[in-house]
Protein backbone atom coordinates (compact mmCIF):
# COMPACT_ATOMS: atom_id res chain seq x y z
CA UNK A 1 0.00 0.00 0.00
CA UNK A 2 1.42 3.39 -0.95
CA UNK A 3 1.13 6.43 1.27
CA UNK A 4 -1.42 7.91 -1.13
CA UNK A 5 -3.73 4.91 -0.77
CA UNK A 6 -3.87 4.83 3.06
CA UNK A 7 -7.50 5.30 4.16
CA UNK A 8 -8.26 8.64 5.82
CA UNK A 9 -8.69 7.41 9.45
CA UNK A 10 -5.54 5.29 9.26
CA UNK A 11 -3.53 8.16 7.80
CA UNK A 12 -4.68 10.43 10.64
CA UNK A 13 -3.52 7.90 13.25
CA UNK A 14 -0.13 7.60 11.49
CA UNK A 15 0.23 11.39 11.33
CA UNK A 16 -0.64 11.69 15.04
CA UNK A 17 1.96 9.06 15.94
CA UNK A 18 4.60 10.84 13.83
CA UNK A 19 3.78 14.16 15.51
CA UNK A 20 3.99 12.65 19.02
CA UNK A 21 7.37 11.08 18.18
CA UNK A 22 8.75 14.26 16.58
CA UNK A 23 10.04 15.93 19.74
CA UNK A 24 7.95 19.02 18.91
CA UNK A 25 5.47 20.60 21.29
CA UNK A 26 2.13 19.22 20.13
CA UNK A 27 -1.60 19.02 20.71
CA UNK A 28 -4.07 17.04 18.62
CA UNK A 29 -7.62 18.24 18.14
CA UNK A 30 -10.09 15.68 16.80
CA UNK A 31 -13.27 17.37 15.60
CA UNK A 32 -16.75 15.89 15.77
CA UNK A 33 -19.09 16.33 12.79
CA UNK A 34 -18.54 19.97 11.86
CA UNK A 35 -21.50 22.20 11.00
CA UNK A 36 -22.73 25.78 11.07
CA UNK A 37 -22.95 29.09 9.31
CA UNK A 38 -24.93 27.69 6.37
CA UNK A 39 -22.11 25.34 5.29
CA UNK A 40 -24.53 22.56 4.27
CA UNK A 41 -22.82 19.86 6.35
CA UNK A 42 -25.73 19.30 8.73
CA UNK A 43 -28.15 19.24 5.80
CA UNK A 44 -26.02 16.58 4.09
CA UNK A 45 -25.88 14.31 7.18
CA UNK A 46 -29.23 12.49 6.76
CA UNK A 47 -28.49 11.52 3.15
CA UNK A 48 -24.93 10.51 3.96
CA UNK A 49 -25.98 8.40 6.93
CA UNK A 50 -28.82 6.82 4.93
CA UNK A 51 -26.26 5.76 2.30
CA UNK A 52 -24.31 4.09 5.12
CA UNK A 53 -27.53 2.47 6.43
CA UNK A 54 -27.21 4.14 9.82
CA UNK A 55 -30.02 3.52 12.28
CA UNK A 56 -32.10 6.67 12.93
CA UNK A 57 -31.29 6.46 16.66
CA UNK A 58 -27.52 6.37 15.99
CA UNK A 59 -25.92 9.48 17.43
CA UNK A 60 -23.16 11.78 16.22
CA UNK A 61 -21.01 14.12 18.22
CA UNK A 62 -21.24 17.53 16.61
CA UNK A 63 -19.19 20.72 16.79
CA UNK A 64 -20.15 24.15 15.50
CA UNK A 65 -17.65 26.21 13.50
CA UNK A 66 -17.52 28.79 16.28
CA UNK A 67 -16.31 26.19 18.75
CA UNK A 68 -13.57 24.97 16.48
CA UNK A 69 -12.24 28.51 16.83
CA UNK A 70 -12.83 28.32 20.60
CA UNK A 71 -10.81 25.09 20.84
CA UNK A 72 -7.98 26.35 18.62
CA UNK A 73 -7.69 29.54 20.69
CA UNK A 74 -7.47 27.40 23.84
CA UNK A 75 -4.82 25.20 22.20
CA UNK A 76 -2.76 28.28 21.32
CA UNK A 77 -2.57 29.16 25.03
CA UNK A 78 -0.74 25.88 25.68
CA UNK A 79 -3.58 24.42 27.76
CA UNK A 80 -3.83 21.37 25.51
CA UNK A 81 -0.10 20.75 24.97
CA UNK A 82 0.73 17.06 25.00
CA UNK A 83 -2.92 15.96 24.77
CA UNK A 84 -5.13 14.38 22.14
CA UNK A 85 -8.67 15.69 22.61
CA UNK A 86 -12.08 15.30 21.01
CA UNK A 87 -13.64 18.66 20.20
CA UNK A 88 -17.39 18.07 20.48
CA UNK A 89 -20.42 19.85 21.85
CA UNK A 90 -22.30 18.79 24.96
CA UNK A 91 -24.76 16.26 23.57
CA UNK A 92 -24.52 13.67 20.80
CA UNK A 93 -27.51 14.05 18.47
CA UNK A 94 -29.37 11.26 16.71
CA UNK A 95 -29.55 11.07 12.93
CA UNK A 96 -33.32 11.25 13.25
CA UNK A 97 -33.06 14.49 15.28
CA UNK A 98 -30.62 15.99 12.76
CA UNK A 99 -33.05 15.15 9.95
CA UNK A 100 -35.88 16.84 11.88
CA UNK A 101 -33.77 19.95 12.48
CA UNK A 102 -32.84 20.36 8.81
CA UNK A 103 -36.28 19.37 7.47
CA UNK A 104 -35.17 16.10 5.88
CA UNK A 105 -36.92 12.76 6.10
CA UNK A 106 -35.34 9.79 7.81
CA UNK A 107 -37.37 6.66 8.41
CA UNK A 108 -37.81 5.77 12.08
CA UNK A 109 -37.06 2.21 13.17
CA UNK A 110 -38.03 -0.04 16.05
CA UNK A 111 -34.99 -2.24 15.44
CA UNK A 112 -32.30 -2.13 18.15
CA UNK A 113 -29.01 -0.37 17.48
CA UNK A 114 -26.28 -2.82 16.50
CA UNK A 115 -23.41 -0.57 17.60
CA UNK A 116 -24.44 2.44 19.71
CA UNK A 117 -20.78 3.45 20.11
CA UNK A 118 -20.25 4.46 16.46
CA UNK A 119 -20.59 8.22 16.11
CA UNK A 120 -20.32 9.74 19.59
CA UNK A 121 -16.99 10.96 20.98
CA UNK A 122 -16.07 11.77 24.58
CA UNK A 123 -15.18 15.43 25.08
CA UNK A 124 -14.51 15.15 28.83
CA UNK A 125 -10.73 15.59 28.65
CA UNK A 126 -10.99 18.83 26.68
CA UNK A 127 -13.53 20.17 29.19
CA UNK A 128 -11.12 19.45 32.07
CA UNK A 129 -8.50 21.48 30.16
CA UNK A 130 -10.76 24.55 30.06
CA UNK A 131 -12.97 24.18 26.95
CA UNK A 132 -16.59 25.26 27.15
CA UNK A 133 -18.51 25.31 23.87
CA UNK A 134 -20.16 28.60 23.01
CA UNK A 135 -22.74 26.62 21.02
CA UNK A 136 -23.45 23.78 23.47
CA UNK A 137 -25.95 21.86 21.31
CA UNK A 138 -27.32 21.84 17.79
CA UNK A 139 -30.68 22.86 19.28
CA UNK A 140 -29.08 26.02 20.67
CA UNK A 141 -27.55 26.68 17.24
CA UNK A 142 -31.01 26.31 15.72
CA UNK A 143 -32.57 28.72 18.26
CA UNK A 144 -29.79 31.25 17.66
CA UNK A 145 -29.97 31.02 13.84
CA UNK A 146 -26.46 29.57 13.61
CA UNK A 147 -27.18 26.69 11.27
In short:
The protein has 6 helices and 6 strands.
Question: How is the secondary structure organized here?
Answer:
Layout: H1 8-21, E1 28-31, E2 33-35, H2 41-51, E3 59-60, E4 62-64, H3 65-76, E5 84-87, E6 93-94, H4 95-102, H5 124-128, H6 138-143
Parallel strand pairs: 1-5, 2-4
Antiparallel strand pairs: 3-6
Helix pairs in contact: 2-4
Could you characterize what this model shows?
- By secondary structure, the protein is an alpha/beta fold.
- 38% of the residues lie in helices and 12% in strands.
- The termini are far apart.
* Overall body shape: globular
Q: Residue ranges: pLDDT <50 for 5 or more in a row?
A: none
Order of helices and strands: HEEHEEHEEHHH
Strand tally is 6
Proportion of beta-strand residues: 5-15%
Instruction: Calculate Rg over CA atoms.
Output: 17 Å
Helical residue percent? Answer: 25-40%
Alpha-carbon distance between the two ends: 40 Å
Question: Major sheet: size, sense and barrel closure?
Answer: 2 strands, parallel
Q: Total number of helical segments?
A: 6
Structure class: alpha/beta
Q: Averaged pLDDT, please?
A: 92
- Sheet with the most strands: spatial strand order: 1-5
List keywords for this structure.
147 residues, two-stranded parallel sheet, two-stranded parallel ribbon, globular
Amino acid sequence: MTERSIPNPASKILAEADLKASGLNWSILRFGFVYGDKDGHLESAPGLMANWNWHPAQTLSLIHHRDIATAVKLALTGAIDGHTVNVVDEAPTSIYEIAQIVGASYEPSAEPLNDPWTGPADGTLLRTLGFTPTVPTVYQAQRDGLL
